[in-house]
Amino acid sequence: MITVASLIAMGVSATQAKVFAEPLAAACALHDISTKRRVAAFIGQCSHESSGFARLEEDLWYTRADHIARVFESRVPSESVAQTLTRRPQVLANVVYAEKNGNGDPASGDGWRYRGRGLLQLTGRANYADAAEDLRRPYIEQPDLVAQPSDAALTAAWYWSCNGLNALADKGDMAGITRRINGRAMLGLQHRTQLYLSALDALARIEVSA
């Protein structure tokens, strides 16, 4: 179901479709992301999280304190604190991800070392460790691997499976899927839903024309 042509039909650029078609097809086969709804939901979420499969590493370069305070409201108590974190991506990561998802304190550097990577932005030492164990990949020692296309697809499909997202995709529950991927903030729900519906329509058209 996932080919260069089908990815392009689902809105992925031709350049990125050629890079990701094979890794995505293999990863989806491993985790039974096999129906139109599952594939459309998965591709839609991955596309949103990775800016159209073009960004495989979290962008922590913020120039506005109010934006930091809004995105990381539970970890940054005020805009004055946020101001000290602007244009300092490594410091920001170590502060906002400290002692979360298996990370150590800010001095450990875990927040930056295990920042979001991959198509679904795998984040935190514990998640990297779990993925490393299940997938038999050295993500703790080499976290940058997750930002490579093959591992970006592999970890995304693994995370999708571990969080029971096939079942939610079967129901078309984009809010539920977004909550499990993005947390209570549920950022970009409307865009994620639009991407899903467009992908679903594209897959239906491909099926009819086959």
CATH topology grouping of the largest domain = Lysozyme
Determine the fraction of residues in helical runs and give it as a percent range: 55-70%
Q: Count up the domains.
A: 2
What is the overall pLDDT average?
96
Number of helices: 12
CATH level 1 class label of the largest domain: Mainly Alpha
Topology pattern, helix = H, strand = E? HHHHHHHHHHHH
As a percent range, the share of strand residues is under 5%
Report on this model:
- The chain has twelve helices and no strands.
- The chain is an all-alpha fold and 210 residues long.
- The chain has two domains: 115 residues, Lysozyme (Orthogonal Bundle); 49 residues, no CATH class.
- It is globular.
- The N and C termini lie close together (12 Å).
Q: Could you give a short description of this structure?
A:
The protein is built from 12 helices and no strands.
Tell me the layout of helices and strands.
Elements: H1 4-9, H2 14-30, H3 36-49, H4 65-71, H5 79-83, H6 89-96, H7 110-113, H8 125-135, H9 149-162, H10 165-170, H11 174-182, H12 189-209
List keywords for this structure.
mainly alpha, 210 residues, Lysozyme, 2 domains
